[in-house]
């Protein structure tokens, strides 16, 4: 399909999207960007960060320097789904101070209740059911988060219509089914987008303070209830559902730790959406607590005005003594530890075994010394297993810049890893 591209300009973004598509694609946009103002123009000074084009084989291709492969999609709904995902990343590229959490959010009495994504927990189903129940939704997929000058943490509306997987689960409830029958929809075999009315969904850029974090756990036959959840589990889930990468990992970890410790955190067990919403409405009818105020951390000791001081990565940990590298931020809660790599890009979760090895490394220690310490502490464990676990931890710590050899430094790796020992 050889046509001159048009350009999709969305409010709030500096970059555009080049469109080489048919009329069906253009006509689908209002259903999906229902609360995100946009325009389509023939020419623009905004450089495109991506191109979507319909080729002669009938498939839509999304092309971007930020995408390794040229992904293709069989219809316009799937193609726009892919664009929505890339728009979340583009917002972070243009505003690196933002965090972005994969999850849903809705307005309860002037504060946002955030529902981080967990597999098959029904965040989008619940979002549509909440809209049907008169609760104003902010997103069902990704929530940018900012810290204001006064320290209040606010969630920002995406302005994108909620998307449901098909077939619809019966748990969505009769109220939501009736609601959808009275709203505009666009669907394919996989998804349906529900276009909310103006009062039912916040517009792009609208924001509210974060009020609570609610993790979803849908179980067949479960009675809807709010239960406790450990701070460590909450923090771990928030870390994995955060997809900000431009910011410093120490800043990200510090803010997520603050959220997990200072906002009410709950687990919502439920089966059907309507009883779950009744529980949420009753619990969040009003807020009895004042808003917490978060202020950024002081710079880490390995940071300079131009970034992080260079350091070395260790691949051979078999010889010499090692200790904690300077500038690694450590968060410990409920007996579990999280670390930031010295690259400023990575966050690591330590399971129980890795946490023990990390504790030993608070003083200069060789692998042999660590093995002997753990053998003495756990005489019932086989030596071979302890050796394997210690070596694995030392290697993981070393390659991720978390260790330093005496009189030396280490270098970064920019991935989120789970450091493991058994």
How would you characterize the overall build of this protein?
This protein is an alpha+beta fold. It has 3 domains: 6-94, no CATH class; 99-283, Rossmann fold (3-Layer(aba) Sandwich), CATH 3.40.50; 303-419, Alpha-Beta Complex (Outer Surface Protein A, domain 3). It has helices at 23-32, 76-94, 123-132, 174-181, 231-241, 249-262, 273-283, 352-360, 367-377, 383-399, and strands spanning 6-10, 16-20, 38-41, 48-54, 60-63, 71-73, 99-108, 111-116, 137-139, 142-147, 153-156, 163-165, 184-187, 191-195, 207-218, 225-227, 265-270, 303-304, 307-308, 322-324, 330-333, 336-340, 347-350, 403-405, 418-419. Strands 3-1-2-4-5-6 form a 6-stranded mixed beta sheet, with helices on one face. The longest helix has 19 residues, at 76-94. Residues 304-308 and 408-422 have low confidence and may be disordered.
| Global shape | globular
**Number of individual domains:** 3
Share of helical residues:
25-40%
pLDDT under 50 segments (min length 5)? Answer: 304-308, 408-422
Side-by-side strand order of the widest sheet:
3-1-2-4-5-6
The first-level CATH class of the largest domain is given as Alpha Beta
CATH architecture of the largest domain: 3-Layer(aba) Sandwich
The major pleated sheet works out as:
6 strands, mixed
Strand share of the residues?
A: 25-35%
**Residue-averaged pLDDT:** 87
Broad structural category: alpha+beta
Rg for CA atoms: 24 Å
Question: What's the CATH topology label of the largest domain?
Answer: Rossmann fold
**Would you report the number of β strands?**
25
What is the terminal separation in angstroms?
A: 55 Å
